[in-house]
Structures are given as C-alpha cells and as structure tokens.
C-alpha cells in the first residue's frame, strides 16, 4: 500500500515533476515476517526512519509530495503514519491495491515482480514461490481499508484487481483528485508506443522554427519508408495520432491508415520568433536568445510558449496514451521531447535537450519499473535540427522568469 504525504505549504519552486509538484519516493525495504519470528519492532523502526526522511524532504528540501512505499497493511501501521502526519501538519492519501483474482495475481507476479529490485536473480519459479509465501504471511495481519466504519474519514483510493473496479473515499484537494484521475487511466496490459517526428519539412531545410510548411522531397520519402516499416511490423489495432499541422498530416496520409488529429500535439508556439532561423533570432532578439539558452525549460517565447507550458498542454495526450494499446504519435521535436521525458522519467533540465532526430522512430514498451526503448533509424537522410545545451555562460544576468506560472496538472 502506497501512502502519499502532501505538504500544505507549497513553495515557489521551479523543480516540477509531472504532478506539477516536487516529489520523492521513500521505500521501506521490508522482509516479510514469518509467524515464528518477531520482526514487528524491526519493521516499525525502519518505517520510522523512512518517515523522518519524509519529514526532512517536505520541510527542509522544498518538497511537496512524498510517496511512502511500504506494506502498510495493518491498522497500527496506518495509525502511526496518520499520527506522524498530524504532528507535522501533512495531508495523507492512501492508495490500496486489492487483488483476489488468482489469475491476475499470477500474471502480476510474472510481469511485475520478476523485474522488481527485490529479486535480482530473476528466476521466475523462485519468484513465484517466494511471493506467494509473502502473500500468505501478509494475510495473517492484513486489514483492508474500511470505508464504512474504521477508515471512513480517511482519504484514499482502493484499486481492485488492477483496475477492474475502484473505490474512492473523501478526496480533499486538487492533487488528490489528480492522483485518482491518473490511477483510473493507467493499465498494465502489454502495448507499444511509437513516437516519431514528421518527415523533413521545407522549413527544416531552411533552418526555420515553427510555421506550417509542407514536407520536403526527403520528408515524403520518409513517409513512404514509415509506411513500409509499419506494414512489416504488423502491429495489431494500431492507432495513429498527428498534430493539426501540415507536415504531420502529410506524413500520416502516406500511411494508408485512419489517423486522428490532435491540436494539442502542435509544435511549441514560438510567438514572435515563428518562422525565423536561430541566427535571425539571435540577431533580432539577442537578449531573448540568451535567456532561452540559460533557462530553456522555463523560458517562454514572447507571445508564445515555454516547455513548461507545453508539458501542461500535453496532459490529455499523456492520459490517453496511458489508457490505450498500440499507438503511433507523429509529432514535433519539442512535443516528442515532452512525451519521451514522461515515459523515460527525465527531469526539466534534460527534457529540452533530448535528441529527437528526424526520420527516426522511438519504440517504447512499458515494463515493470521502467520503459524499454528502441531507436529505429529509417534509411532516409534529413537535416539535423538539434541544438546542444550551451557549455559556457553567456554572461547575461537573467532578470525575469519568462514562464512564471506554475505547472498545475499531471502530464
């Protein structure tokens, strides 16, 4: 059972994750207790140490959310957590996963627990046997959350048989509602997400950013190569999504399949810098050019967007990707960086500099404790649109934050 511990005092911090709040996971690595051994005191002490880490993170490190990852299956343990939260003026949100379907349990052990850090040897038979023993031991003391009596005043979500049903109780605030929204959209069924940019565009050849130009000759060749790749893969029930810009639509039209246009997949809005080259921007707006190099994630183009804004805009796409099966998303460089950052758990410092070359497919396969990534380069040349992170200081003092509004949504 996970416990989300939330700090009421939200500082003006620039370290945002996909929940829009600085977060950290505190894991209590517990040995399951055999009936003949008294591990209770040992486990309690480990939990108390982890809770002190929670307190330090939320009060001393400007944290806003801490996930207390431990078994927490007894009322005594949960009461201990609640008392700790009350003493420190923290809010608590419990996440309980209940599984009583033998087939679901077996599949979960093989798909998830084999990849767990608890089992470095990865022997499937040993993992199955050991984890079933764990379950039997936990049954002795396990007391589920009781929405009718004992736990009726607690805030929690109960996830039953990996999303077959949900029970939600006393959601108190925005962050808790976003956690519920997220948990009700994810699933653990096998699937693959394919990400690629549109084919090379006419503006790519000219070094211009933004705009709505069509594909170059090589961009059209890539679209045909992408069609051949998809036909060879024989991907079941593949959905194709594009932006509403010409270059992604032209790429999708060559595939010979139905596709869906999403306006929120449009490229980052460069405002007054739309349809300009970087050289032109540096000459015409030298201060803006330098500011963006210093704080690329937070920097907002005059009249346009920042990467932070883009992350917020992409929330519905992220949630829909979590709900879906096999999907191909044909998008743009900045958009693709945001999607990759979500699935690969990259932070704000890395996100704006992730390499997303033209005519390259990223095949993402969500697995337990991560995401498997394969990069597939189709044999069609294209210009390089990547700009590396500056290594030297520009010397220009930054006097404004071009994107000061906080990111307040899960993505």
Structure description:
- Helix content is 36%, strand content 16%.
- The chain is an alpha/beta fold.
- It folds into two domains: 2-183, P-loop containing nucleotide triphosphate hydrolases (Rossmann fold, 3-Layer(aba) Sandwich); 193-377, Rossmann fold, CATH 3.40.50.
- The strands form two sheets. A six-stranded mixed sheet has the order 2-3-1-4-5-6, sandwiched between helices. The protein has a six-stranded mixed sheet with strand order 9-8-10-7-11-12, with helices on both faces.
- Strand 2, helix 1 and strand 3 form a beta-alpha-beta unit.
- The longest helix has 21 residues, at 40-60.
- It is globular and about 70 Å long.
- The two termini are 23 Å apart.
- The relative contact order is 0.12.
- The model is unreliable at 8-16, 30-38 and 401-411 (pLDDT under 50).
- Give, in order, the helices and strands: EEHEHEHHEEHEHHEHEHHHHEHEE
Mean pLDDT: 87
**CATH homology-level superfamily of the largest domain:** Phosphoglycerate mutase-like
The residue ranges in which pLDDT falls below 50 over 5 or more consecutive positions are 8-16, 30-38, 401-411
**Total number of domains:** 2
Rg from alpha-carbon coordinates: 24 Å
User: What is the spatial order of strands in the main beta sheet?
Assistant: 2-3-1-4-5-6
CATH topology of the largest domain, which one?
A: Rossmann fold
Number of strands: 12
Give the name of the CATH architecture of the largest domain: 3-Layer(aba) Sandwich
In terms of DSSP E residues, the strand content is 15-25%
The helix/strand class is alpha/beta
Shape: globular
Query: Helicity level, as a percent range?
Result: 25-40%
Number of helices: 13
Keywords: Acetylation, ATP-binding, Hydrolase, Kinase, Multifunctional enzyme, Nucleotide-binding, Phosphoprotein, Transferase
Pfam family, one: His_Phos_1
GO biological process, one term: fructose metabolic process
Organism: Callorhinus ursinus
